[in-house]
Every structure is written in C-alpha cells, then in structure tokens.
Design brief:
Elements lengths: L2 E2 L6 H13 L17 H13 L3 H8 L4 E6 L2 E8 L8 E4 L10 H10 L3 E4 L16 H16 L4 E5 L2 H12 L4 E6 L14 H17 L1 H8 L1 H8 L3 H15 L18 H12 L9 H9 L10 E9 L10 H4 L3 E8 L7 H4 L1 H19 L1
Helix pairs in contact: 2-11, 4-15, 5-6, 8-12, 10-11
C-alpha cells in the first residue's frame, strides 16, 4: 500500500557530504588533457565550487517535497514515486528515467500532462534515489515486473502508456514483452533492445550498426565496469562525492546534444546550470544510492536481458522520438520495425540522451501526438 513520503536527508549526512566536498584535494588530480580522457577537470571544478559555496540542499528538498511523493513495497522492493492526478479523461502515464538521470528529468512535463487529463506516475528506479534499500541486483526485466506491479497496485486492470529512455526504454520494452495486455502503448526516446535475430539488411541499417559499434567501443567502458564489478567502483564512489560527481558529469557532458569545441570539450553550460546538475547528482549522493543505482547493469548481465529471444515481435503499439543522441544513436525506423510495432516515428531536430531534460517542449509535443494516435486506434 502506497504511503506519503517526505524527503528528509539527515543533518549528519549533509554535513559529511559538505566536509568531503570542501576537503577534496585538487592538487592530487592530474589532468590528462581536458575531455579527451574523461571528465574535464575545469568543468568539474566549476561544478564543485558551486557545490561548496552556493548549493543549498535544504532549499531543493523543500521544492522536491512540493511534489506528491509516495513510497510502496512491490514484491519486497521499496519504490519511491511521484504521483500526480489529472481528471481521468486520459489514460495513466508511467515515465521512466535511466542512469545517470533521475525522476526530475520529467519535471517540465508533469503539469502539462496532468492538465491534459492524465494521471502521471514517475518512479525512482529500483536502487536509485529514494527507492532503496533493494534486496539485491535488479535487472531491467525484473524492474519491468516491479513497474507493472506498481501500476497494478495503483490502477488495477486499467491499461496505461509508458514513456522511457536509457534504462527506461529497456524496462518499457520488457513490460510490453511480458505484459502486453496491461499497456496501451510505449513511447521510447532510445531503442537499443532488439530481438536476437534482428539483423541489418539495407545499406542504411548496416551503416547504423557499424557506427553504433564504433561508438560503443569508445564510450561503453563505464557499462562494462558497472556490469561486471559494480562493488569495486562503489567502494570509491560511496566515499567521494566529488568522484561520484565526476563519474556522472562526464556522461552528461558526452551524451547530451551540446556544442563541442575542437578539442572535444562539450559546452555543458550552454544547456545545464550548476544547480540542476548538482540536484541530479545529489539524488544519488545524498540518499546513498550512488552504488545501488549501478547494480542494474550487472542485473542485466545476470538475467541475460540485453536482447529479446529470437523471433520476438513486440505487438504493443510503439512510438519513437528519435533524438540525435551523440553516443546511443537512434536506429533507422526499418531496423526498429524488425522487433517493434512502430506506429509513430519522429526524427527530432535537437536533443540528446536526456531528451525530456534537454528538450522538454519537443518531448511533450511528441508524447502528446503518440497518445492521440494510440487513443484513436483503441477507440
């Protein structure tokens, strides 16, 4: 049974974080040359200076607590979620984030979607933010079962629509695979889960696979580490707020759709401010979920949920907002159709991996168009 939840990080925990941020010894961090070898030291220093001198978690906490936050237990796992209610004229929406994002990515979409008539449910994924402790490694297929359980607790047999990117896309896809009867549709801004036998055939598909594999060879070291030895990485991140910030800031800088200087430095500050970046990072650091949030990577490896079985065809109506993600590039529509029933596809002019955060107006418009299409088909 869901109960109201108040976000309230202890004074002792905040004091510990502040002390460690202030004590970080920058003289012990050599610079291999800007962003060429990882996070840019100058950008990280700018963020940490704001953290040390300006950032006020208590003010942020008051803002976060203005949302209707809830906690519930689903199949033994603690789940935090925000639950806003519309007038019931549109079906419920479940919005799913990924790593290193958070439920706050969807903040600009919430009021407009509620005004449209939707109930909107935005959980923290298992092990993320306040959805902790968890009983162990939770992969995306297990997370899908938990999300189906959450929506079942809230809405019984009423069907709903899921939007997801990053891990949210994999979870939404497994929800559609395992419980197609529960869903009206899934809307994805990342499509990287395919049937095992989905093979490229056209020149465009072959070019996509070649480029995807080239990018992942360069950019997926983090995923291999978190998918094989998350506990070792966790020993460092649990003790170093600045280290955790650097680990996540690099991904935001490389994955967002940002101007890039000739030396490879992304202009983070053209899109994000220190306050919003730190709030996203603090949703990992403050509740001590920075370690458990990485477990989903090894969970995927152990449950072997990185591909659908050969011959899989997702029959739930699927919409895709193909944002120009610079690392996880969108596939051609023809390739996605080998696995999904694509009824809606939009090639977006801008926006990267964190689509709802980077380009909320584009995301909102595309999600609305997909909802209208799905409701028209189901009427």
């Amino acid at each position: 049974m869901a109960t109201p939840y108040k976000i309230e990080i202890s004074d002792d925990r905040l004091a510990t974080i502040a002390r460690k941020v202030a004590a970080y010894d920058w003289s012990e961090l050599p610079d291999a040359g800007g962003w060429r070898s990882g996070v840019g030291v100058a950008d990280l220093q700018r963020l940490v200076t704001y953290w040390r001198d300006v950032y006020d978690w208590r003010a942020v906490e008051r803002r976060l607590n203005r949302f209707p936050n809830f906690m519930t237990d689903i199949d033994g796992e603690h789940l935090h979620f925000v639950h806003l209610k519309g007038d019931g004229s549109k079906p419920p929406l479940l919005l799913l984030h990924g790593w290193p994002g958070s439920y706050l990515e969807f903040e600009p979409l919430l009021e407009p979607l509620v005004a449209d008539g939707h109930d909107v449910v935005v959980p923290s994924l298992p092990g993320f933010a306040f959805s902790k402790p968890i009983t162990g490694l939770v992969g995306p297929r297990r997370a899908a079962a938990l999300m189906n359980g959450l929506m079942g607790e809230l809405y019984g047999a009423e069907r709903f629509i899921v939007q997801g990117g990053d891990w949210g896309n994999a979870i939404a896809a497994w929800m559609a695979h395992d419980r197609p009867d529960a869903l009206l549709g899934i809307h994805l801004n990342m499509v990287n889960l395919h049937a095992e036998d989905a093979a490229p055939t056209s020149d465009a598909e072959k070019a996509f696979v070649a480029k995807r594999d080239e990018l992942l060879e360069l950019e997926s070291g983090y995923s291999h580490q978190q998918g094989t030895r998350p506990q070792t990485l966790g020993a460092a991140m649990a003790d170093s707020p600045v280290g955790a910030a650097g680990w996540m800031l690099e991904k935001i800088g490389k994955w967002a759709d940002l101007p890039v200087a000739p030396d490879g430095r992304p202009d983070i500050w053209s899109k994000f401010c220190e306050e919003e970046l730190l709030t996203n990072i603090m949703l990992y650091v403050a509740p001590s979920s920075v370690v458990t949030a990485t477990w989903i990577y090894q969970g995927r490896r152990l449950e072997k949920s990185n591909k659908f079985p050969a011959g899989t065809r997702i029959k739930v109506p699927t919409g895709v907002a193909a944002f120009p993600d610079p690392v996880f590039i969108p596939p051609p529509r023809s390739f996605a159709q080998k696995t999904y029933d694509i009824v809606h596809w939009s090639d977006m002019p801008s926006g990267g991996h964190f689509a709802a955060w980077e380009e909320p107006d584009l995301m909102l418009s595309d999600l609305r168009a997909f909802v209208a299409l799905v409701l028209g088909k189901s009427s």
